[in-house]
Amino acid sequence: MAESLASHFETYRPLLFGLAYRMLGTASEAEDIVQDVYLRAREVPAAQVKNVKAYLTTIATRLSLNRLQSASQQRETYLGPWLPEPVLTTHLPELANPQDQMILHDSISIAFLTLLEKLSPAERAVFLLHEVFAYSYREIGEMLEKSDAACRQLGRRARQHIAANRARFDSNPADHERLLQGFLQVVEVGDFAGFLAMLTEDVTLVPDGGGERGAAIRVLRGQQSVSQFMMGVRKLSPPNLEAKIVSLNGRPSILLTASGKPFVVICVYAVDGRIALIQLIAGKKLAHLYI
Length: 291
Description:
Layout: H1 9-24, H2 27-41, H3 52-76, H4 110-116, H5 121-132, H6 137-144, H7 148-165, H8 173-189, H9 192-198, E1 199-208, E2 220-221, H10 223-236, E3 241-248, E4 251-258, E5 261-271, E6 274-282
Parallel strand pairs: 1-6
Antiparallel strand pairs: 1-2, 3-4, 4-5, 5-6
Helix pairs in contact: 1-2, 1-3, 2-3, 3-6, 5-7, 6-7, 8-9
């Protein structure tokens, strides 16, 4: 029996998951895509494929585009803001941004993945394939069955949108660690006076409770609103809550657990040494988060 393409699959599994996750913003769906690619690869003789990497990438891209089309209506009726599912990059080191490719920005961070949500599916696919995974426009055109010129135009529109809308957050690791430790003080001992001093005046808090009824669904802006919300979260939290700093989506973030199960993820982003954006993710968005 001829060797199937599946015999080469494991080599490219990290690439395929990384692409599908960035496309969909959902780890569980990305895993489904990877499994579908494997099942299709089992039916293809390896001798028939000249470029295994490009072939598998094409399948993953097209499956992701199909999934995005069906997901768009669901997200239109989603209760509250939609944020990507966080992933522990300590468990998935292949997702972390390569140190030698600064063009990747922070292409796996929750903030960046949220920005990608504003692109059309085709723009997102072209941007990721070209800017993150270094495929040429000719190769992308073959994958998407589009002309080189069309792919270039999609890539240009995507870059322009990202450049116009991407917030410039601080990247100093020491400052980020300081802010996270200060945030932990809020969670553990309720130091809200200190918390206010950590926030910019126009700080924004974006909550995603998994689209469930009863979860927080309003974006909050301003020190007082954000501080009062966090006070409410602390009061309503389970008594056995534990907090720790973990690597989520390539960045140190706060993970709160209750009875050993993920309860809330908190991602913070700073401008001039103070917190400008807080993303708070809870509910079923954490169901796949292995700790």
